[in-house]
Design a protein that fits this description.
By secondary structure, the protein is an alpha/beta fold. The longest helix is centred in the C-terminal third of the chain and has 14 residues. The structure holds S-adenosylmethionine.
Length: about 170
């Protein structure tokens, strides 16, 4: 998250969505680099995560700029008015997420999209999975991950770069 937050700082975002925010570790990293008056919205479909994340944001003094919403990302994005400066996506695993088009559509031109979980692509390419991904994501996890990467790379509205270590991808919205 330190690298993601440093990339975010380069575009001085005033509005950020954190998809799959969990307990808000990523959300608070992003909240730590924004200027006063900015908004970081964390989204997660686990209501317990959302209530705990809300309490943590208050405890660490970020309540003025952080807001959490509970629900499936694809549903919550429908309620959000764009454009936003940045989206961080941790709400996917081994397959194209249902929210892909809505997510990209909300980012302003020149805005930033960061995506984690690309260790799956590294493992698909090397053929040496560091975990039993099939038990989380099905036997075809390598194919679905590679297909998602290829789809992202071929989108005309994104300019995507992958890093191997740490295994994240970042994209600029064209
Ligand atoms: C790896 S964890 C979150 C980590 C978090 N970003 C952090 O930095 O601590 C992924 C989270 O995404 C949530 N999630 C996964 N798919 C989702 C979806 N489609 N809609 C909403 N939440 C989702 C899960 O409930 C889980 O809390």
């Amino acid at each position: 998250m330190q690298l993601v937050a440093s990339l975010a700082r380069l575009i001085a975002p005033m509005s950020i969505l954190d998809l799959g925010c969990g307990l808000g570790y990523s959300t608070l990293w992003l909240a730590s680099i924004v200027e006063p008056g900015s908004r970081v919205v964390g989204i997660d479909d686990d209501p317990d995560h959302i209530s705990e994340a809300t309490a943590i944001a208050v405890e660490f003094g970020y309540a003025d700029r952080v807001e959490y919403r509970s629900g499936r990302v694809a549903d919550v994005l429908e309620t959000i008015e764009g454009p936003v400066d940045m989206i961080h996506d941790d709400a996917w695993f081994a397959a194209r997420p249902a929210h892909l088009d809505a997510m990209v559509g909300l980012i302003r031109p020149g805005g930033l999209l960061t995506m984690v979980n690309w260790f799956l692509l590294v493992d698909a390419i090397t053929g040496s999975p560091r975990n039993d991904w099939a038990s989380f994501a099905g036997d075809d996890w390598a194919e679905t991950t590679t297909e998602y990467a290829n789809e992202l790379a071929s989108r005309s509205d994104l300019d995507v770069t992958w890093l191997e270590n740490p295994p994240i991808a970042f994209a600029i919205r064209r």
